[in-house]
């Protein structure tokens, strides 16, 4: 089991499966909400338990996606694809307590990355 929380601890979560290798998203929405690029792992909804859900606020950033954050401290925790055939939810890697037992697998939306940094690893890169 893996556990994690927001910065203030008002929202905590547990994941009962192994964490799949995460992806770094460089799209403008993830950069604007997180302050940099955002790294998350996609896990089955059935493997996630959220404690303190009354402190979780959802922002619908598009018709297809909502983003969950703590209403107390503002930590961006979840990326929820509303119209996906897959029954998954993405969870911010930075919110997990150690150890995560996984490693970054790829970069997404690199054509949209910020101009103030470079991607210097050899992981796969997807332009869009």
UniProtKB/TrEMBL annotation:
Domain CENP-V/GFA: 2-118
Similarity comment: Belongs to the Gfa family.
Family annotation (InterPro entries): CENP-V/GFA (IPR006913), Mss4-like_sf (IPR011057)
Lineage: Bacteria, Pseudomonadati, Myxococcota, Myxococcia, Myxococcales
One function term, GO molecular function aspect: carbon-sulfur lyase activity
PANTHER family attached to this UniProt entry: CENP-V_GFA DOMAIN-CONTAINING PROTEIN-RELATED, GFA DOMAIN-CONTAINING PROTEIN
Pfam families cross-referenced by the UniProt entry: GFA (PF04828)
Name of the protein this chain belongs to: GFA family protein
Keyword RNA-binding set for record: no
Database matches in PROSITE patterns: CENP_V_GFA
Keywords: Lyase, Metal-binding, Zinc
Annotated organism of origin: Pyxidicoccus fallax
